[in-house]
Amino acid sequence: MMSLRRTAAGTALALAALTGATAAHADTLRTAPAVTAPSAVAALPAFTDGHGLTVLPWATEVHSPTDFTLTVTTKQLSGQHKIRVLLPAGYDAAPERRWPVTYFLHGGGGTVDDVAAAPALHSDSMITVVPDGGLKGWYADWQMQNTAEGAANWETFHLTQVVPFIDANLRTRTDREHRAVVGLSMGGYGSLHYAEARPDLFGHVAALSGGIDFGIPQVRAAVLATELNLTGAWCAVSSSSSTSGSGKCTGYGPYVDSDAIFGSPYPVFNADRVWKAVDPAAPANLAKLSRTGITLYTGNNDVIDVHTAAASKTVKARLDQLGVPSRLVNYGNGASLAPGCNGGHNYGCWAPAFADYVPRLEAAFAAAG
Predict the structure, then answer these.
(1) How far apart are CA 367 and CA 353, in angstroms?
(2) 177 — phi, psi (to 5°)?
(3) What is the chain's Cα-based Rg?
(4) HSE value, Cβ hemisphere, 13 Å, CA-based, for 276
């Protein structure tokens, strides 16, 4: 037990240095403050409460006519939570048209505003929805609901509330062939897990630098580090990951028990049964993706992505063994992807990765008719 705790602490301390290094990208990732005016709010699509979500109209943020953020409450989560929506430019002009939807899951220490650092996700061919995933939600229904975080049923919030809420309030295509889930880092885990948990919902999935193999001790250690609020572990530095606006990831919120999210991480007497059950790399889970378009991106050039590269390689190999088609892009030190990518765990690589992926996804949506 102490060995894995030491691994978590060691991983976090090593990654803290990376957090400071990637903060240099912050200036390019900052977004203009939201400007909310009554007339602007009135021009947005009308959203009605439902599926367990209550909209707080006074808290709506308008970034542009096709980019706005809702604030909702739900019994599944403590507090208020945001859902950012990016509409295609032609949404209002084509009132009879329905649109594919892509759900973007942000990384640890991030918020819904991280999507501004990946402009390719604001597409004129689809709706993009960015639900709050918590600083350390890990896209899971937590095993412990009595921590300092309070109610923490993130998976239920996303899959049984947000998805039908969006379908009820926007003109979406509701079949799986026209719905995708994509994410990075912590959200890379979330995207692959959600695609496996609900293949009826998602026909396409992409995981960027994802913690997608719970068989790797360093991945489990990163989850523990977020629970223990050890700043620097898998922190996605972006425009919004710091309330100070510095662009530095300031942590993961209050300390919680190391068993809070997935239960005990220690493989003794099957104590880690939840970890194994939700492991995206488990062959039984990967087999559920037999009809899903799968794309993985990773670098391998820093102390985080060296592990996401190993995880992605394992997932790809197991998918190949299962005969499930997939695409893995390991861009190594970043030179093959984009001039601003150093192969590390940052938006300098994730933004061009999305720029590569989104046109492929748009083509898949179009081919689905």
Answers:
(1) 22
(2) -65, -15
(3) 19
(4) 9
